[in-house]
Design brief:
Mean pLDDT: 94
Helix content: 25-40%
Number of helices: 9
Shape: globular
Strand content: 5-15%
Structural class: alpha/beta
Radius of gyration: 17 Å
Low-confidence stretches: none
Order of helices and strands: EHEHEHHEHHEHEHHE
Distance between the termini: 8 Å
Length: 279
């Protein structure tokens, strides 16, 4: 049995070094897909890389959190930003605001539409949508993402999940099941299984191997692992207090042992565009 594995590099466009790392992960390693951050400071660098990388699948990494400013003004999306016009830094704020009914889906729709149009303007087909810090797990955001995927002809949406114990893991799994039902009703594709949320920022060779073996045991015929490659010591990453081991993830993605394990476990590398043919 052939199983499809999508190895997606998130945050394309975050910094110039991240753009270079994603390119290396594809050219020299196992990265098959990337998600572009339209609000990223290095968006133009990302666009140039992608126009010259015909085999690298592209999606939109839609953001309503993070250090980078939105595309629209605070007056256009008042429930998504603070008084300084910036997004909140964490998904936790989105959850809190959403639970209190303080996120207007129309604001999300306006900002996400602007971001999606910017990514589409690169001029390459979009294979999928996902979100920065997985905010589309939250129902109000999920509804907008599903709507935009259908309206713009994007065939697939990421389905994150977690294997953590405790309330956070339970909550993520509950929201993931609801998102899967929503995607199915909308006729959108997604992978049968997923890893990357629990390992975010620390997906070195050992953790990738552990995650892939767990996916293989699940029996799913398609899976995504999302990663965050970057360059060691890049000054532009200093403003992000995430504690990510960017260079370790790049080393894992380009390590011969990573590809050997993928082959040994019976996976074929591909993108969200290959989901229709997954068996």
């Amino acid at each position: 049995m052939s199983r499809l594995l999508v190895v997606n590099a998130d945050d394309m466009g975050l910094t110039p070094g991240v753009c270079r790392a994603v390119h290396r992960g594809h050219a020299e390693g196992v990265v098959t897909s990337t998600s572009v951050l339209a609000v990223g400071a290095a968006f133009d660098e990302a666009a140039a890389v992608l126009r010259s990388s015909a085999q690298l699948a592209v999606g939109a990494h839609l953001a309503i959190v993070g250090e980078d400013r939105p595309l629209l003004s605070a007056a256009e999306i008042p429930t998504l930003v603070g008084r300084d016009g910036h997004f909140p830094l964490s998904y936790r704020t989105v959850v809190a605001r959403g639970a209190a009914g303080r996120i207007d889906p129309d604001d999300v729709r306006r900002e996400f539409t602007a971001q999606l149009q910017r990514v589409a303007g690169i001029g390459v087909p979009l294979t999928h949508l996902d979100t920065h810090q997985h905010t589309h797990l939250w129902p109000a955001v999920a509804g907008v993402v599903v709507e935009l995927a259908g309206a713009h002809g994007v065939p697939a949406v990421r389905l994150p999940t977690s294997r953590r114990r405790g309330p956070v893991g339970l909550g993520v799994r509950l929201l993931s099941r609801r998102l899967r039902d929503r995607l199915q009703r909308a006729g959108l594709r997604t992978t049968e299984d997923y890893a990357g949320l629990d390992e975010s920022g620390a997906l070195d060779e050992a953790r990738f191997a552990g995650a892939l073996r767990r996916l293989a045991r699940s029996g799913a015929t398609s899976a995504e692992i999302n990663s965050h490659p970057g360059e060691a010591g890049e000054a532009a990453l200093g403003r992000f207090e995430w504690g990510f081991r960017w260079a370790d993830e790049l080393a894992m993605l380009t390590a011969p042992a990573t590809r050997e394990l993928i082959d040994r476990l019976g996976y074929r590398l591909g993108s969200f565009a290959d989901l229709a043919g997954a068996r």
